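Fill in residues.
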């Protein structure tokens, strides 16, 4: 039978191994082990500061760990998070000085419905005062959005959804469906048959949702806005 120290060493090795199907159960076990396990998770979390920001394969692991630690009722852990990660684990870059901190806080708390609303608000803010007042976007406005900001928004959604939500996920599913919009709507549960999913109560605001379910884009106005998002140079 393993000693606690041996178990912690093995779990740390699994966590640092980079294999997602092994990392997730290791994280869960480390959480159950209390302070010694939490310490290993905090050490690993600090590695996120050394990871290339474009590494989408790693960002959701760090986001998940941050979410788990955020839920611990422990003064020492919460103090460390506030001191070392006051905004969260995703760098909030913006070409136009947009404040994405409220969105990061909501996503970290898994408040996906509020996060979806904030995402649209930030997109409109990026597009300018006319879009902000209108509260929705023209596809021509989407085409002019900065690459850096769209990538930040995408990183935020990836980080706090186990990599299940985000524009890059939607784009991957769209390309995988042969760019067939009807297939995509069914796959991400925005439409069933001829019936569009109604906002907000028919959408799923947690990780039980299909991959790519969030963030939303209003398709009742047509596919042009979504097409502009998924074809944006941010993903090339």
């Amino acid at each position: 039978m393993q000693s606690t120290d041996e178990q912690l060493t093995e779990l740390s090795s699994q966590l640092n191994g980079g294999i997602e199907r092994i990392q997730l159960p290791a994280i869960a076990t480390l959480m159950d082990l209390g302070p010694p396990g939490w310490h290993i998770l905090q050490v690993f979390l600090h590695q996120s500061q050394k990871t290339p920001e474009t590494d989408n394969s790693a960002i959701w692991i760090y986001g998940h760990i941050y979410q788990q630690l955020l839920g611990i009722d422990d003064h020492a852990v919460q103090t460390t998070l506030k001191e070392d990660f006051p905004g969260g684990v995703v760098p909030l870059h913006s070409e136009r000085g947009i404040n994405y901190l409220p969105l990061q806080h909501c996503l970290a708390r898994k408040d996906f419905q509020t996060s979806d609303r904030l995402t649209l608000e930030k997109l409109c803010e990026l597009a300018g005062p006319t879009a902000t007042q209108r509260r929705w976007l023209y596809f021509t406005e989407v085409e002019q959005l900065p690459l850096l900001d769209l990538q930040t928004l995408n990183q935020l959604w990836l980080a706090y959804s186990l990599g299940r939500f985000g524009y890059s996920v939607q784009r991957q599913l769209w390309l995988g469906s042969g760019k067939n919009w009807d297939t995509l709507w069914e796959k991400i549960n925005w439409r069933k048959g001829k019936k569009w999913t109604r906002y907000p109560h028919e959408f799923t605001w947690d990780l039980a949702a299909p991959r790519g379910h969030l963030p939303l884009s209003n398709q009742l106005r047509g596919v042009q806005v979504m097409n502009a998002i998924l074809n944006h140079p941010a993903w090339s």
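The chain has a mean pLDDT of 94.
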